[in-house]
Amino acid sequence: MELPAYPPQRRTSRPSLLVAALAALATLAACGRVGFEEPAVEGVKDSDPGEVPTGDDPAAPHAYDRCESARRIGLLEPVLMGTVTSAHDDLPSPPGCGDGPEVVLRFTGPARTVDLEVTSTFQGSYIVGQGCPLSITAEFSCAPLFSTLATPMSDVAIDENTYLIVNYVEGAGRDFALEVSDAAP
Question: Model's pTM, two decimal places?
Answer without folding.
Answer: 0.66
